[in-house]
Structures are given as C-alpha cells and as structure tokens.
Write a structure and sequence with these properties.
- The structure is a single chain.
- The protein contains five helices and three strands.
- By secondary structure, the protein is α+β, with helices and mostly antiparallel strands.
- It has two domains: 2-61, no CATH class; 69-129.
- A three-stranded antiparallel sheet has the order 1-2-3, with helices on one face.
- The longest helix has 22 residues, at 108-129.
C-alpha cells in the first residue's frame, strides 16, 4: 500500500508459496476520502475476482471500526511501534494509542492496544532479567 497526498494505491498478490509464482495480482487506486469504504470495496472486489463469497458475518466485520480517520491512523501507528518492541517504540505506541482515544473514545481497538502494554512490559522484564513471574 502506498499513499501520496490524497491518493491511495493498494497492490494485492496471490502467490503460490511452493514456487513463488504469482497466481493473481491486482492494483487499486482510490482517493483517501474514506479509508474504511476503500477497505470494504477492495475486499469485496478481491473476493469477487477470486470467486469467493463473503459470509454476512464476514461482511459485518469489515465495517465495525471508527469513522474517524485520524483516530484510525493513530491506532495504526501505535500498532506499528508496538510491534517494534523496544522501550522507545513502546512509549511512542502508547502515545499514538492515547491520541486515537482522544479522537474517538468509542474506538475499542485503541483500548486493546493500551491494555496489552502492562502485560507485554512485565513479560519483557521477566525474560530480560530471567525473573519468575
């Protein structure tokens, strides 16, 4: 996925892992007016192209998120830094999750990101210092 100003380009590939051959590929370009509508549109197009049919429960999952794109971007940045798992990155992750909450207090994924912090920090301390929890 690449973003330039108000344009978003998503490239999707289906690859055979046995020989790394590309079985199917498609690129999508959209204006970044509604990231969530883009996600739903691209997912439906991929499913249609590959002859899959999304179940109603799967279609419902793709729409349950925040309508606030600033909150969503902050959440994604928080997850990015959380996955780096360094002290500085974890501090940044917390900051981004908190920004996401301030933008949309009803966006539950931001709370899950914050809730994982104490557990992760304890596990990290125990592993690094060989402590017994």
């Amino acid at each position: 996925m690449r973003r330039a100003s108000d344009r978003l380009r998503i490239t999707v590939q289906l690859v055979d892992v046995r020989n790394e051959a590309t079985l199917w590929a498609e690129s999508y370009e959209r204006n970044v007016t509604d990231v969530f509508a883009i996600q739903c549109d691209v997912a439906r197009h991929i499913a249609h192209s590959l002859k899959f049919e999304l179940l109603p429960s799967e279609q419902e999952v793709t729409t349950k998120t925040t309508a606030n794109s600033v909150s969503y971007q902050a959440y994604l940045k928080g997850r990015y830094y959380w996955n780096k798992r360094t002290n500085e990155a974890l501090k940044k992750a917390i900051s981004y999750f908190e920004q996401a909450v301030l933008q949309d207090a009803s966006y539950s994924l931001t709370y899950s990101g914050l809730a994982l912090m104490p557990t992760f920090c304890w596990v990290r301390i125990a592993f690094c210092h060989r402590l017994t929890p």
